[in-house]
Amino acid sequence: MASEAHGEEGGLVFHPMDQFIVKPLFGDGPVHWYTITNVTLWMGIAVLGIFLLMVVGTRGRAIVPSRIQSVAELAYGFVYKMVEDVTGKDAVRFFPYIFTLFMFIVFANFLGLIPMSFTTTSHFAVTAVLALAVFITVTVLGFVLNGTKFLGLFWVSSAPLALRPILAIIELISYFVRPVSHCIRLAGNVMAGHAVIKVFAGFAAIAVISPVSVLAITAMYGLEVLVAFIQAYVFTILTCVYLKDALHPSH
Amino acid sequence: MATETHDAATDAAHTAGHAAESAGMPQLDFSTYSNQIVWLVVALVAIYFILTRIALPRVAAVLAERQGTITNDIAAAEELKLKAQEAEAAYQQALADARAEAARIVAETKAEIQAELDAATARADAEIAAKAAESEKAIAEIREGAMAAVKDVAQETAAEIVSALGMKADAEAISAAVAARVKG
Asked: Is residue A123 classed exposed, middle or buried when 0-12, 13-18 and 19+ CB atoms within 10 A define those classes?
């Protein structure tokens, strides 16, 4: 694999992207679709974390919640309110789907901030599947619920008639660019932050620079904590916005 | 596969200090895509089922129950407040009654005392009046007595003076003269 190309040359060696390499957990074979890799491990940990928070944390069913239960309720209320406010009351039936996306991204992002961990959401394969799932859901749902009226999304009836075909093309392009931006925004943000931290960490090998490097890593880490949540939030709220187009296509 | 990703990964490779063998972006290593996608779908399905089967109904139930409890508690508090207001009204009423009762008792007692006082005063007045009348009578008697004595003394003195002058006078003429003089 590519990572084995790096030799130990002494001095400054940067491997900022090595942390993203997908490798088998057991042994050194090629990566088949069924191979248990670090992706499997960290997604499994994310599922476990969600299980611990949402199921084990709420097992008391307390009227006055424990700490973990109140975090679970907070997450529930946060996403529920977002769906209700952005997409509308009739979109509440999609809440489990959106909540699944949100919880997965939040857990993957934060688990990725643990040193030596693997960040599943830094891979375009993962975010592209998430974004495409949203895109396909929205498109299919739009046509199923509204029929051909869904195309009204591209026909801006408030614009002058002469402009409408041009606007329709622009709208169409922007519609198909959505999944791309949706996917690259998340993976790009997460990947960039992690890579920058790794680069700073590489500088720490020089004794004179290392204090600055450690400070920089600390600052970047703080920023990354923010980014981890904000990107999950952005992904989720954009999902809600796109879903709103499917439910209420009128411009 | 490294050659496919070579172009896109050149920047990253430069950073790594290796231009010859591609360090590449592992993100663009398409051979791992199927693996990631499979495990992602497995994870998402697992999360979806955990959430929809267990977690979300439970949290929703807890939230609904809490909302219900809060509503009930507020209603109960409202009821208690109403009761407290009633109790306060009753208390105020009792207080007012007690005050009125006290005022009545005070007035009654005052009237009684006044009546007793009046009776005592009247009795005392009567006694005083009786005593005064008695005293007046005594004084009148004494005065009467004094008048009679004056008449007697005048008659005797007149008789003595007349006899001393060597004349004889009858008692009747003297007493008539004295009576005329005393009257005048």
From this structure: buried
Q: Is A52 on the interface with B (CB under 8 A)?
A: no
Inform me whether the pLDDT recorded for A77 exceeds 70. yes
What is the spatial distance between Cα B162 and Cα B169, in angstroms, rounded to a whole number? 7
State how far residue B87 is from chain A, nearest Cα, in angstroms: 32
- CB of A71 within 8 Å of any CB in chain B? no
* Count: domains in chain A: 1
Is the residue at A1 inside a domain? Answer: no
Q: Which residues 6+ apart lie within 8 Å of A49 measured at CB?
A: A107, A111
Only one residue has tokens 């949100």, namely A102
Domain contains A4? no
Are the beta carbons of A5 and B21 separated by less than 8 Å? yes
Q: Are A139 and A153 a contacting pair, CB within 8 Å?
A: no
Tens of pLDDT, residues B132-175? 999 999 999 998 888 888 888 888 888 888 888 877 777 788 78
